[in-house]
Amino acid sequence: MSPAAEIEDRAAQWLMRREEADWSDAEQAALDAWLDASMAHKAAYWRLEHHWRRADKLRALGGGTVEPLETRRERPRRIWWTAIAASLLAVAGAGAAIYGFGPEKPQAIADARFTTPVGGHRIVPLSDGSRIEMNTATLVRTAMTGENREVWLDTGEAYFEVAHRAGQPFIVHAGSRTVTVLGTKFSVRRDGEKVTVSVLEGRVRVDDASAQTVPAAIITAGDIAIARGPSTLLAARSEERVESALAWRNGMLTFDQSTLAEAATEFNRYNRKRIEIADPEAADIRIGGTFRASGVDDFVALLRDAYGLKVEADAAVIRISS
Amino acid sequence: MIDSKTLNAWFCQEVLPLERALTAFIRRNWRVADEVVDIRQEIYERVLSGASNGLPAHAPSFVYTLARNHLINSAKRARIVSFDLVADLESVDRDVDMLAADRHLTARDELRRAQEGLARLSPRCQEVVRLRKLEGLSTREAAERLGVGKDAVERQLVMGMRALVDFMAGGTGKIVWQNRQRARKTRGEP
């Protein structure tokens, strides 16, 4: 365990012991001594104690029965959603009456188009409670109707946090692939024909829209699927890799044994000033680490200082050679 | 010298609500994701040491300054120098609003957060935390109820407590256990 985890573990044990009925004066003295030994002990213990006490509010749910949490959580929420849906329908109905439209198919709640520029980052809340977090140079269209929730990722990359709605799948169209989910967190990225789906939580289904005969791929949390043309590659299960694939949400790029050419392509997605690698030798250098997506200059300085590469730059292009 | 009780109250009211923003700040400026929690703990330690000589007037700027200095010093010590983190941090906007707090959580939000955090625990942890929080059972009683050893209940409760607190504090509610297993293996424990 790391030093902080070690201390926190110890603090949690103290806190647990202290809540017991047979807590003694001798133990209190030992705890006081432990707390006085270091500010780090105090910080860990006070933090746990504070939040753990806040969690006492759980008792407001009424102790006694140990009912599964899910049902308790879902019930009020569903009532709430029904109420909203009902009021939306009422509004739609009122509009129809005023403008003299006859009774029609369910009204579209939102039909919209969202874009980000190069280097942009934008969070779009949807009417159903889901969120789309858009990465650099991305175009997304949404159609949220009463029955369907559909999104088209035309270019770029987006991270989705989908609100669970029973019987209403959330569908993302990305080129030749459709991704169907019920409630989960995942990202979809398009590079021309190639579609990459990384799942952080839950499960999604990836279909090849152009070939009905190919079985769908089901991917679960920690998986990355890379689809190109008719084939879909399922990368080995790794939560760490999914987390690095999503590092852009913190404005960071993470490389693990990527070639310099791949790293340059990544940086070029976020910045107007482009990196060009002049020769294959330099292009094959392996890079690892986490970098600020907007920090092209820092990245280039590293290449020059640490790797001894030559750097020539003008306003639009940075040329790197060995 | 500030007494322990006052310091504790100040820490809970002024510093802990900054945790989510502080964690994001460290994550943005530190390259090794596994070390973020350790660094945060070290910053808290420095915050308490600093504040024990006199409570600062404005907690967010105090925490931010200490966090920034600590990151710079750690980077210098770790010699992650070729990538110019230090210069980056020194030129970074001194935008203290970055540490704007989630302090306006209502009692209802807190309950929702606690419920969500509980739902994220593994089934065994969840059961033990529920027996503790909802039914107020001691570890011995919980062990009897579940038909397992007291040690097992204590272990699950410590895990559940840490993960739930992490989530309540604005984190992901995930505690990394692999490290512990790895550490045990290298120490030759079961």
Written description of the protein model:
Chain B: It comes from Sphingomonas colocasiae. Chain B: This is RNA polymerase sigma factor. Chain A has eight helices and 18 strands. Chain A is of the alpha+beta class and about 325 residues long. Chain B is built from ten helices and no strands. Classes of the chains: A alpha+beta (about 325), B mainly alpha (about 190). The interface between A and B is large, with 58 and 65 residues.
| Distance between the first and last residues' Cα of chain A | 42 Å
Domain count of chain A:
4
In CATH, the architecture of the largest domain in chain A is Sandwich
* Secondary structure tally, helices of chain B: 10
Judged by helices, strands and strand pairing, the structural class of chain B is mainly alpha
Order of helices and strands of chain A: HHHHEEEEEEEEEEEEEHEHEHEHEE
Largest sheet of chain A: 13 strands, mixed
Radius of gyration of chain A: 26 Å
> What is the overall pLDDT average of chain B?
78
Q: Gyration radius of chain B, to the nearest Å?
A: 19 Å
Give the low-confidence spans of chain A: 62-109
Count the strands of chain B? 0
Report the biggest beta sheet of chain B as strand number plus sense, adding barrel if it closes: none
Count the helices of chain A. How many? 8
Q: Which class best fits the helix and strand makeup of chain A? A: alpha+beta
What is the 3D form of chain A?
globular
What separation lies between the terminal Cα atoms of chain B? 45 Å
How much of the sequence of chain A is in beta strands? 25-35%
Regarding quaternary structure, how should these chains be classified? heterodimer
CATH fold node name of the largest domain in chain A: Jelly Rolls
Organism (chain B): Sphingomonas colocasiae
Family (chain B): Belongs to the sigma-70 factor family. ECF subfamily.
Pfam families (chain B): Sigma70_r4_2 (PF08281)
Domain RNA polymerase sigma factor 70 region 4 type (chain B): 113-164
